[in-house]
UniProtKB/TrEMBL annotation:
It is found in: Cell membrane. Keywords: Cell membrane, Membrane, Transmembrane, Transmembrane helix, Transport. Belongs to the major facilitator superfamily. EmrB family. Gene3D superfamilies: MFS general substrate transporter like domains, Multidrug resistance protein D. Residues 11-459 form the Major facilitator superfamily (MFS) profile domain. This is Drug resistance transporter, EmrB/QacA subfamily. One of its GO terms (molecular function) is transmembrane transporter activity. It comes from Thermoanaerobacter thermohydrosulfuricus WC1.
Amino acid sequence: MTQKHYSKWVILSAVVIGSIMGPIDGSVVNIAMPEFTKIFHTNITTVSWVSMTYLLVVSSLMMTFGRLGDMLGYKKLYQYGLLTFSISSAILSLSVNIYMLIIMRAFQAVGAAMLMSMSSAIITSVFPPNERGRALGINAMSISIGLAIGPTLGGLLLKYLGWRSIFYINVPIGIIGYIWAHIVVPDNKGVAEKFDPYGSISFFAFLASLLLFISEGGTWGWSSLTSIVALVTSIASLIIFINVENKVEFPMFDFSLLKIRSFTFGNISTLLNFMAQNTMTFLTPFLLQHLGFTTEKAGIIMTSFPLVMFVVAPLSGILADRYGAQILSTIGALISATAFFLMATLTEKSTMFAIMARLALFGIGNAIFQTPNNSAVMGSAPKNRLGVASAFLATMRNVGMVMGIAVGSAIFTNRLKVYQALKFSSNAAFMIAIKEAYITAGIFSLICAFTSLVRNNVKLIQGKD
């Protein structure tokens, strides 16, 4: 029986369901962290592994699932992702101790990795080049919605339904998403190539150990035995991975993609953009706390960033379809850099509006950068490599997130110690240290603007990439 063909916009709605689940779940779980320490009678360090495990597994497996998507079909992997995410969420709600919670978050991350690696591939495969930016913009808008409503939803669920509800609420959404994707997303046969297990394992080991080193090295001590082992494991695994990929007939990652200028510089730009973005989202709540804002007001202030992205991302996508990524992404990165430098001008007397205006400007810059950049990267990849291209882009995004938090927090804490040692007042030391971290993130954005500018301009007019 032949499958009915649905409108590409209907197909996009099925992708949006999967795209919004991860951001909501992630932000809801972050809100619940203090609750977990009380419920399971444990400490913050142990509870942090609830998020860290998820991030490590998601980041390290996306390339594997991207390759499997090219081989087995994007729809099939996407549905497996929805199913895995939903089942693991149901089991998470039954957790009896913190260790069960951490282990099941790893399984939930497997489902999230499938969803994240397939979403852009499905969109790129069904939308023509002159509409791809708009579609990716709407998908980006759904992610912004998830990030915006997650904290509020998490607070309400924790207050009225208890911590288990933050997990079992995923189950009906996942089931609906699975059924809807089964009905409307078209099948694609994939490519008849063999899977590369050694490349997959070595890449997983490389990225997992690298992210572990970056995120935990400051806690362990950069020269500690644990940190050195993680770094050496990462370097050795990368060498093995490159060696394996150059020998096998069907490698997990097609290195010829890196010869495509727009693909390479677009991914470098993504890495830099998310390094800057996560420096902002990680450090700003500490600034707000220092300035004396209540938790409720801090939540409102932080929401200004994703809400502006929600409005601007679709408009940015429409512009991307007409003008391409080179100019738009460069302008977006420069606006983001400007927002960082303006954040560095804040004082102890800065108003709520002054901070929100800067975060809103940052949201505008990110929205103008991300949608055209994503569209250009995906448009530059061959049709039979959309899964790997989508996964590589998502991997750069996640690595940038981890690096942003690590670099931002390292600069802030180290500079804070310096100024405290110089006998600065606690207020002055804090403000100068956080301003230097913002300036560093602004420099990341300036470099991002440069890498966006030197890419080939991918024309997205009249169906041309």
